[in-house]
Design a protein that fits this description.
single chain; about 375 residues; mainly alpha; hpI Integrase, Chain A; three-stranded antiparallel β-sheet; two-stranded antiparallel ribbon; 15 helices
């Protein structure tokens, strides 16, 4: 197997000036120094932009455009020729236009926070042009499904798996896990990172027969804690308990459990067949794979958040503010962008009237107010 060629330069090998500027940009600051322009970013965002900038540094070095400019400002290296050759390099790597546009966005954001006064007009223009070039690989509207429809498909599939095999086995348990994860995301649309990293006994606790989920602010994108309960009806509890006592134990290669052992369970909720926590990427592709099989369309974890927002927009627009907070959005504008992805906005007048009322007098809507939102309700057909 041939060794993969490098496409990026790690932070330690960046030019000294770039390292200092980036470190200052992500610094939280103290009583002497102000916080950096990127200090509020989530850890994952910092990592992504840092890696993206490392690809730019790699390109400059490969083109001999860095050696004579190591002490110059990062923005001074940005010109039509350097950007044109950068895009050519990325295209040669087989990257799609949308991915290249994302790389340019990373570069733009890195320079913006390292040099707040930099003129980014050219970079933003080229990035925008690349976005326009990007041919959509998928149409969102056609893949947005009502959450209850997604849940019912998952529920039927899990039941079929139980009936089809008297003795659980690894393949069945993996598919059961994927269907449950998809169904749970439809009902509780967390971000992928939070969903894949759920830990029993830490984020998920069973109290008086009710599963509570609490995610601290340091683990969320907007820095605000999220708290809610899992569905409590018989249909959900039956398949969830089945996963904990049977399918998860198969994945762990451990003996099956009885219900009395469930409250004391600890460790990752979602496991691979190697007894390890599922990575973000593994979780993502599991959701895409099982949704394609059950619904005839690939639905990724982020799109499930659009499904949730769309359901509220059509069924209960008065709850848009609660949706904004449950979805982890720091402002209403972000939630609206989710609504605008949907083809369910034929009754948009009601939604816009509600939005105007919210903006006039903002009601209190805690993130824990999940039970009254329509995408958390589904028929108990068990």
């Amino acid at each position: 197997m041939s060794k993969k060629s490098p496409t990026s330069i790690c932070f330690d090998l960046w030019p000294d000036r770039d390292k200092r500027l980036w470190s200052a940009a992500i610094s939280n600051g103290d009583f002497l120094d102000p916080a950096g322009a990127a200090s509020h970013w989530a850890a994952a965002t910092k990592t992504q932009v840092q890696k993206g900038y490392g690809k730019w540094i790699f390109h400059l070095d490969a083109e001999n455009l860095l050696s004579c400019a190591k002490t110059s400002k990062p923005s001074s290296r940005v010109n039509e020729n350097s950007l044109r050759s950068f895009i050519t390099r990325l295209e040669a790597q087989g990257l799609a236009s949308q991915t290249i546009a994302s790389r340019l966005t990373d570069l733009t954001e890195a320079i913006r926070v390292m040099e707040p006064s930099a003129d980014l007009t050219l970079l933003k223009k080229i990035s925008s042009n690349m976005q326009l070039r990007a041919s959509p690989s998928r149409k969102k509207n056609s893949r947005i499904k009502p959450p209850h429809e997604i849940w019912q498909a998952c529920l039927c599939f899990m039941r079929e798996l139980i009936i089809s095999s008297a003795t659980p086995h690894m393949v069945q348990s993996s598919r059961y896990r994927d269907a449950l994860a998809l169904g749970l995301l439809a009902l509780r649309p967390l971000r992928r990172r939070n969903s894949s990293n759920l830990i029993l006994g830490q984020h998920l606790t069973l109290e008086h027969g009710i599963w509570h989920c609490v995610i601290p602010g340091e683990e969320t994108k907007d820095g605000e804690a999220i708290a809610f309960t899992l569905p409590q009806n018989h249909a959900f509890m039956h398949v969830f308990n089945r996963y904990l006592t049977t399918e998860r134990q198969v994945l762990l290669k451990q003996p099956l459990l009885n219900l009395e052992a469930v409250p004391s369970l600890r460790g990752p909720l979602w496991l691979t067949n190697r007894c390890k926590i599922m990575s973000d990427h593994a979780f993502y592709y599991a959701i895409v794979r099982i949704s394609t099989e059950l619904l005839g369309a690939p639905i990724n974890p982020h799109l499930l958040r659009d499904c949730a927002a769309s359901a509220i927009s059509s069924e209960a627009p008065e709850n848009i503010l609660a949706a904004s907070r449950i979805l982890g959005h720091s402002n209403l504008t972000t939630t609206l962008s989710h609504y605008e992805q949907s083809s369910m906005l034929a009754a948009g007048a009601n939604l816009m009237t509600t939005i105007h009322e919210i903006q006039t007098i903002e009601p209190i809507a805690e993130k824990s107010e999940t039970d009254r939102l329509p995408f958390h309700h589904f028929k108990d057909v068990m």
